[in-house]
Amino acid sequence: MSSFMHMLGTVDPRDLNMERGYRRWTAYARSKSANLLFIHELSRRLRATNARLVAAAAHPGYASTNLQTAAPKMEGRRAAKRFMEIGNRYFAQSPDQGALPTLYAATAPDVRQNDFFGPPLQGIWHGSPVRATRAKWTRSDTAGRGLWAASERLTGVRYEALAN
């Protein structure tokens, strides 16, 4: 699962946990960029093993969820919370519509390795799922290998069948 916000944050392999200057929206953007980069590397590894499994990603577009209002609420910023509630009410699509790209990526017969789906940008991230635009750095083989290695190191999990 990713977000169009991935466009605002690259993966910093020297500071994956953002221990040097944490900012919530930067962390969110970086994590969504990392999700796409990880899918890229997983897809590359699946292709190398001729696996029938497909790794794809999706983003919900602008869906009316608590993502936009949770932080202002926790911080007691009433005006910001109200502003986001208005945005959700008048500009966002429903959570059900936001789930469609994920369902499409998981079930549609035309999904290919490393695809990324979301609602169309022209509709301001509303509507039926289409192949979505993604940042160039989320397709870097070198960065993908690095993120994979860091993930193995940080989690202690290694998938021998996908090692290469």
TrEMBL record:
Keywords annotated in UniProt: Oxidoreductase
Keyword Transferase: no
Molecular function GO terms recorded: oxidoreductase activity
Gene3D superfamilies the record matches: NAD(P)-binding Rossmann-like Domain
UniProt superkingdom: Bacteria
UniProt entry tagged with the keyword Metal-binding: no
Record protein name field: Short-chain dehydrogenase
Organism: Streptomyces antimycoticus
